[in-house]
Structures are given as structure tokens and as C-alpha cells.
Amino acid sequence: MESRFYLGSILIYCTLLLFLVTIDGASYGTHKRGISSVFSLFNLKEKSKFWNEAVIRRDFGDLETSISDKVGVANYTKAGNIASYLKLSEVDSMYLPVPVNFIFIGFEGNGNREFKLRVEELQRWFTKIDHIFEHTRVPHISGAFTQLYKNIDDKVQQHQLPIISHINYNFSVHAIQMGGKVSSVFERAIKILARRENVSDTRDGSDAIWQVDVDMMDVLFTSLVDYLQLESAYNLFILNPKPDNKKAKYGYRRGLSDSEINFIKENKSLQGKINEAGSVPQKFPDLFKSKRPLYEKNPMAKFAWTITEDTDTVEWYNLCLDALNNLEKLYQTKDTADTIQIKVMELLNGKNVDLKLLLEKELKSGDFRGLHAECLTDTWIGKDRWAFIDLSAGPFSWGPAVGGEGVRTELSLPNVERTIGAVEEISENEAEDRLQDAIQERFSVFGDAIDILLAEIDIYELFAFKHCKGRKVKLALCEELDARMTDMKSELQSFQDEEYDESHRRKAVEALKRMENWNLFSDPNEPFQNYTVARDTFLAHLGATLWGSMRHIISPSIADGAYHYYERISFQLFLITPQKVRHIKQLPVDLQALQDGLSSLLLPSQKIIFSPYMLPLSEDPALAMAFSVARRAAAVPLLLVNGTYRKTVSSYLDSSILQHQLRRLNEHQSLKGSHAHSRSTLEIPIFWFIHGDPLLVDKHYQAKALSDMVIVVQSEESSWESNLQCNGQSLLWDLRRPIKAALAATSEHLAGLLPLHLVYSQAHEMAVEDWIWSVGCNPLSITSPGWHISRFQSDTIARSYIITSLEESIQLVNFAVRLLTKQHTSDQTYKLFRSQERELVNKYNYVVSLWRRIASVTGELRYVDAMRLLYTLEDASNEFFHYVNETKALLHPINCTKERRVQVEFDMTTIPAFLIVLGILWLVLRPRRAKPKIN
Questions:
Q1: Contact 182, 240 (CB under 8 A)
Q2: Which pLDDT band, with edges at 50, 70 and 90, does 436 fall under?
Q3: Are strands 645-653 and 631-639 parallel, antiparallel or unpaired?
């Protein structure tokens, strides 16, 4: 019995164990990561609002009164982690609105080839332009023997911020078509302001090349933008003026041509008159007084269309016309010498500081060696927020002389003459010849009557689409074909009789159905849009060009790096000379011009500190050794634009070696170019090497931006033949005045600005070149030696600071959200987390509200106001991150405490096992019948 009882006890214990389910003794389980919300503030969809209030948590008091503790605990534990409970997800992208105006002049039907744009065409083509771009960064390349900003092994390079940014540009395109009065003003201005490029050219005007004074055109564009109050957007003018037959080929230039410079150089009496002359009167004195806003606020839509009436611009038209008439009277009685004198006096009294200083020095010396003509172009970037393309000018070319890509050629821009003009308005004789050729070619292969009739229909249809639709003057041949088509319908109907076989009847019915929908020979005044291949080709090319303008001048890529906003910028200029001079002002460097140029790189809210120092190599052996170690020589092969091969040996400084040597000189003190232990001041060291023989940086450059310094070289060569060309002529650099190169390198070091031809391509995963927009008198272009910063570039500098702050804030918030994702929820942490929740939500909402405010202010191009919020955003992001860490530290002891209570759950799957055990017990423990004893 004892053994039987022992066995029964074991079976009962096993039965009880079958009721027990998995003991939950672990503190954490495995949780899935929170899924990004579709309604995320920064995950913009096609039809979603830019800002979605669902991202920001509701008022905390509403939660306290509406949710009971039991429901709150259930929701908290069910969420799995704190980020899911708070409905926080990582930010994928954020959008900055960018307003853009495309202003069409000469497309109302009175311009070149009387080309007329219609709103249907613009909507059909220009809505295809990508209106959302990611902000991109171009990786740096170390070393002097690699082409600048080309493909590199990205795996070994660490980026402070992602190459493809979280920040996206959301463009709102507003197309504006100007009326005939505006077109006539620009046509008249081009006619009056054009001068012969070659003063000795006596050929007929149609064969000569003409140069239009872009400084005077600058006044017209600026006054129109100011009059219509379009300053709160980026304005791109597309011109299609009717060309003057006497001035067929023209372009835009600032300053003088080579022929005019030689004329002054050889004419000593003219030089004397210029030196003795006084100031010249202002040409456009009253253009800025009146204003008539075109709209109260930019439409901020993906695509909007506005047609201006002549009444909108009549006042501006009258003012410009009076000024141009007075200017025409001034030039009518002038000979070549007088015209050149007037132009030189305008430059000496104008606002172009670089040209003014250069002319003053060259007139004083009398040799004019450093005065070179700027390139003739058909595009231009103004000093304010406007640029233009003239489709009737040129065509021109510029870019690398040998081995370059994306160079500007004569076919780079759309051309009305080549596309629309090539297929427009053929004569009656030409139309008849083309029709006869098509008939002979097509009818030679047919013999059946129905097939011949169908072939005739095909020919007439194709001919009508090409030469009858959309004509202003109807061809007589088209009228004859219209009558012939009526007869053909009767002939096709006769094929439906039963005497013809089934195939003939089917072909006739199909042909009649085709002809029912035709309107090929309708009245030309009927409102029908003719989408020809030529027009579509032109519009597609124009759309691609405008897309490129947004990529290169409005929202360009910047150099890889984090560029922060500082209230004060301290430029430490180290002028390194071979020998010591008595005073720094005796050096061949215009310090005032350089300081003015550096000041133009700053925003209105920033202050400049300019500190020049003189370091003679003769008194500093360590610096002289660093200079000698970094100096190299290279054999550079040159293939000139005329096909001549030349090998030159150039001397240059290796920037990597020089940077390393200069760092070693500063081992015992903080390296210049650090943040000066303050977020309010940035120090930028500029090492300016003055040398007698021609000297460059990394074989091809006059200045180079490095991570902690800027290197500039200056030498005595006044006409250095570069590896760039424009319109078949090599571009000459004046190595005595490297201010333009110095400002370009400093802007890259300060805010990441790159040359206008460079942009990052996601398709190639590297920087690509497009030289179309390398124009304007700014430091980033090649077609002009000017160094005035445009508003496009100053806005890019401001956006660089803003995007850096937003990007770092997003990274910090995303990291904090990831920490909250790892914090699992449980009953034990609920009450403690509730004490932190209110402040956590408030801090997160405050960061989001700052993102929202900065994006709104930036979309209105109020960059100075946005700068005031950057420090606040940095502090708010850090506070949210620190509070997340505090919350994590507060919950950590509870999460690490081991559970001592065993949690038992009932499982229905144990019932069959329980019945089996009961059956076994019954069989084992049931009473047995006593066995009879047998003696």
C-alpha cells in the first residue's frame, strides 16, 4: 500500500504541474520597434498638409481628466515602450518652403518668332519639374592630385552630417507672363545699350557681334522686381525679345571689351580726358519711387499662373521709356572715343567696387596689363534675388578648355529660332513640293483602290498636322485639301456597298471613324492648341534649364561639414612675405577691398573682426621651412582652344602638406580657426602667401579652403592662362589680385559654398558639373572677375547655418526617441513615468514648435529672424535630450529589479492531459478483487 500511495502522490504532483504555464520571471521581453506614423510632421505625403497637428501631443490636462488610472495603466503597458506610448517616431524629413517666380517676357505673341505660351502648355510641362529637392552635401577630397570634389571612396570618410540631408526644399513655382509693354521696354533697352564688341569692325551690323551693358540692364530688372514688389521670392526672367535685324548676335557683358581696352591703351589723349573728367549723371534716377504689388503674398502652390495686364506696369513702362529715350539722345551724336569715355566714367562712378579699383590702378599705371574683358554671356545672376536667360542672345560657350564635363555649348540653352523657327510658316511653293514628294514616295507601293485612298488620307493627315494647324496665314493648299477630304468621305462611303468584300468595307468604316474626329483644316482663329514636336521639344528643354537653375543658384549643394551660426566672425589675416617691409600698408594687397569683400560674406546680424598680421619668412625659419616643404613643381599639359599643345612647369603649394606644417607650428597653442572657446565667435585664419614667381595652390587654384584655415597665394603674373575658356578664348587670371579666389575659398570654409557649376548628383553619388549658371560678377563664377556676393549666395549662407542647426536638432531628437523606444513599459514604472510625462511632452512640443516657426520664417526669406531662433533651438533640443536621459535613469532601478512573484496562468490545452492522468490514476488506484487462496 505504501508503494501504491507513493506512486499515486507522484502522479498527482505531475497532474498539478500540467496546470502551470510559463513562469514570467524576466524583467523585459522582446518588443518590436515603433512604426513611423503616416501623419508624421516631417513625413510629407502627396496630399498631406505641411504641418499636421497630430504630431504634437494634446494638452496634458485633457489626458488627466479623461483617462482613468486603470485605462492609463492598460494603455501604457500595451504600448510596449515609452516612444510608442507617446506616439513619437524618428523624423525622416523636414521641408523648407522656397518661393520661386518664373517671369516670361516676350512670350505673349510679340517676341521672337511671335511665339506664344499658353497656360495649358506651362501646366503640362512645368508641373513635371521636381518641386521637392533634398538638400545635399559634396564630400571633401584630400590631396592635391585628385580633381576637386570628384568621386571618392565614401566608406573611409566620416561625415558630420548626412550627404543626403533630412532637410528638403519644397518649391512653389509661380509663373508670371508679362504683357507687351514690358517686352517692348527690354527690346528697346537692348537696342540702345548695345555697342559693337570690336570698335574697328566696320561690317554690316547683322554680321558683327554686339555687347549689351549688363549694368544698365541690372537697373531695369531690379526696378521691375521692386515695382511689382517681388523681393520676397526668387525671380528668374526668361526673355524672348524680337531681335533687331541690324544687331543679330548680341550678348551681355560688364565693363569693356578687349577691343575697347586696346583702344584706351593706345589713345593717350583719351586717357587724359578720363583722368580729368568728373562724375556722370545717373541714367535711371526715378525708377524706384513708385510701386504696384503684383500680389499680396506668393501663392505658395506647386504651380500657379498669372498673366499681367499692361495697366499693371504702365507707370513703370513710362518711366523706363523716358529714361531710355534720354539715353538714346546722349549716344546719338557720340563717336567711338566719346562712347568709351562715357562708359569708363560710368564704371569709375558706379557701384562695382572691383571694376572701379581696377580701372583706377590701370589708368594710373597706363599699361592695362591686368584689365581683361569679361565673357559675353546670355545668362546672368544679378546682385539681388533675380537672374535671367535671354533666348534670343548668343549662343555662347564656356567651361574647361580640355577634359571637362557639363560645359556650356551653343546648344545648351533652348532656342526659339532653331526649334520653332525651323518648322514654322513654310511658303505655298514649299508646301506643294513637300506634298508631292510624300505622295510619290507613298503611292509607289500601292495598287488596290481602297489602299490608295487610305494612303492618301494618311498623307493629308500628316501634312495638315505639320503645315496647316496653328498657322496665322492659311495656305491655299490647305483649303484645297479640305475640299478634297470632303470628296474622299463620299468615296469611302461608296465602299460600304455589298458589291465590295468584307475587308474593303471594314477599312472604309475605320477610315470614316478617323475622319469624324478630325479638325485639321479649321479656321485659324478657332481656340485650338497645336502641340507640335518642335514646341514640345522646346518646352522640355526649357523646363530642364529652369530645373537646373533651381539646383545650381537657388538651392545649391554645399561642401560636406557642419556650419554653425556665430554672432562674430574674426578673420585673422597672415600676410606672409619673403622679406620684411616697413609697414603692412606697403604690401601689394588692398586691405580695404579685402575687408569689404569679407564683410559681404556676413549676414546683417553678424559682426566682423578683421586683424591683419605680417609674417616675413626671413625672420621666421620654421615658417620658411614649412613653405619650402610644401612647395612643389608639376608638368601640366595644356591643350589650348586653338588646338595648340603646350607643356608648362608650374610651381604650387601642396595644401595638405602646408596644413600639416602650419599645425605643427601651433602645437603649443590653440590652432587658429577653432571656435575660440565660445559659440558666439568664430576665428578664421587666412594664410596669404606673397611670392614673386607664379605660384598656385594644388596646381590649379589661387586659393583653397581647408578644415581649419584658408590658403591664398599671390604672385606678380598679370595674365596667367588658365585651364578655362570662354567663347573660344582662354580665360586669363590676374595673379596679382586674388581677392575673388580668396572670397570663394573663405565662403566655402565659412558656410560650405561651392562654385556654381558643382552640384551633388544622387544618381552618380558624386559631384557633377554644369557650367550654364557659372555667370555673374560673384566669387563663385568663372565668366567674370567680379567678387560681389549675390543675394542668392548670401541666402545660401544663411540657409547653411539654418540647415545645420535643424539637422543637428533632428539627429538629437531622433537619438532621444530611440532611447525611449528601448524603455519598455510595465505596471511598476507607470506611476513614476507619469511624474515625468508632462515635462517630457512639453519639451518635445517646444522643439517641434521651433522647427515649425523656423521653417515658416525661412519660407518668407526672413533669414535674419530665423537666425535669432537657432540658439534657442539648440538649447531646447539639448534640454529634451537631457530630460529623456533623466527619465531613463529614473526608471532604470525599477526595470533592473527582479520579479519575486510567480505569475501562473491557466491554459485550456492542459485539459486533455489532465483527463489522461485521471484515467491512469483510476487504473492504478482502483480497488482490486481479492484473489482466492488455493491451498
A1: no
A2: low
A3: antiparallel
